[in-house]
Amino acid sequence: MNQWTKQFPKYTPEEVQLYCVKDTSWQNFRRSLKGKPTAEKLDRLELYIQDMTESVAMPRGVEVQVSNYISALIRGGQLDAEGKVIR
Asked: Rounded to the nearest 5 degrees, what angle is found at the Cα of 51, between the Cα atoms of 66 and 12?
């Protein structure tokens, strides 16, 4: 995938602590992405969403986890502001 197009609602720092920092399963998944090309990270995030979504509505924790990770890729210069892969 060469561009991330999904948009999620805003999240709070408390939600990041709860759903990202303190979630061992998410931390293991996130570590598995290290060293992968950005396009592959986006593909794996898409699969993660599919694996973690059991119904029509996406769990709030998954929204926060993925959105926070995408924001980090943008801050890190791997994605541009529109979600396109830079490097």
From this structure: 25
SS3 assignment, position 76: coil
CA-CA distances (angstroms) from residue 45 to 13, 42, 48? Answer: 21, 5, 5
Beta bridge partners of 79: 85
User: Three-state SS for 33?
Assistant: helix
Report the predicted TM-score, pTM, of the whole model to 2 decimal places: 0.92
Q: What is the pLDDT of residues 8-63, one digit of tens each?
A: 889 999 999 999 999 999 999 999 999 999 999 999 999 999 998 876 678 999 99
Encoding tokens for residue 49?
């969403």
